């Protein structure tokens, strides 16, 4: 048994989300909102790490 080279997350955007009618499936709408928020937080944390490295 060895370690994997990369990390794979199964958390992704919902496949059944319809941007034309977001209220058609409220669960998919909440999932996509959660996904977008997670992606924004990841970008913020990456920027913080890069900023610290540059100092």
TrEMBL record:
<feature type="region of interest" description="Disordered">
    <location>
        <begin position="1"/>
        <end position="22"/>
    </location>
</feature>
<feature type="compositionally biased region" description="Acidic residues">
    <location>
        <begin position="9"/>
        <end position="19"/>
    </location>
</feature>
<dbReference type="InterPro" id="IPR039993">
    <property type="entry name" value="NDUFB10"/>
</dbReference>
<keyword id="KW-0472">Membrane</keyword>
<keyword id="KW-0999">Mitochondrion inner membrane</keyword>
<keyword id="KW-0813">Transport</keyword>
<protein>
    <submittedName>
        <fullName>Uncharacterized protein</fullName>
    </submittedName>
</protein>
<keyword id="KW-0496">Mitochondrion</keyword>
<dbReference type="GO" id="GO:0005743">
    <property type="term" value="C:mitochondrial inner membrane"/>
</dbReference>
<keyword id="KW-0679">Respiratory chain</keyword>
<keyword id="KW-0249">Electron transport</keyword>
């Amino acid at each position: 048994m060895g370690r994997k080279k990369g990390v794979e997350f199964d958390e992704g955007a919902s496949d059944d989300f319809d941007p034309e009618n977001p209220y058609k499936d409220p669960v998919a709408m909440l999932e996509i909102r959660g996904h977008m928020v997670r992606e924004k937080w990841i970008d913020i944390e990456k920027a913080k790490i890069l900023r610290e490295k540059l100092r």
